[in-house]
Design goal:
It is built from 3 helices and 7 strands. It is of the alpha+beta class. Strand 5 (74-80) and strand 6 (84-95) form a beta hairpin.
Length: 142
């Protein structure tokens, strides 16, 4: 299962970071390829996102579920699309005048193209997690 992890600091107190990352609409604006987010209830949302695979792109519907929230410290979620299952965590810790964020995303492809998708995700996941981190940093440092 391909996995990507990125650790970064933001110049915002942990309370502000937690509030931002706990809001599915706010955090969704930082996820690469997200076109829309429909919040279904307190722990579920349906996301529409476009993933580029070389010259091709695929739009998919992803159902997300918040599995765990430890306020000001940790969040854990899962997401499911037609051909992908994803698990992610976000860990927070105060760091000087700001907050250290550690974001991890694991993706498991399923279906007839699973092996090809897993190989692709191994290379793509690093850039996706880094882009997410840059977007969060830009939103919170500004």
């Amino acid at each position: 299962m391909p996995e990507g992890t990125v650790a970064f600091d933001v110049n915002a107190p942990v309370e502000k970071v937690w509030f931002f990352l706990s809001d599915m609409r706010q955090v969704g604006r930082c996820v690469p390829g997200v076109e829309s987010i429909e919040v279904l209830d307190a722990t579920h949302a349906r996301w529409t996102l476009t993933v580029k695979i070389g010259p091709l792109s695929q739009t998919m519907k992803v159902l997300t579920e918040t599995l765990e929230q430890v306020p000001l410290r940790r969040g854990r979620f899962r997401a499911e699309a037609e051909n992908l299952d994803m698990m992610g965590t976000i860990d927070l810790a105060p760091a000087g005048n700001g907050t250290k964020i550690i974001y991890t995303m694991a993706v498991n492809a399923k279906g007839p193209l699973a092996r090809i998708m897993d190989n692709f995700m191994r290379t793509k996941l690093k850039s996706q997690t880094e882009e997410f981190a840059a977007n969060v940093k830009r939103a919170l440092d500004g």
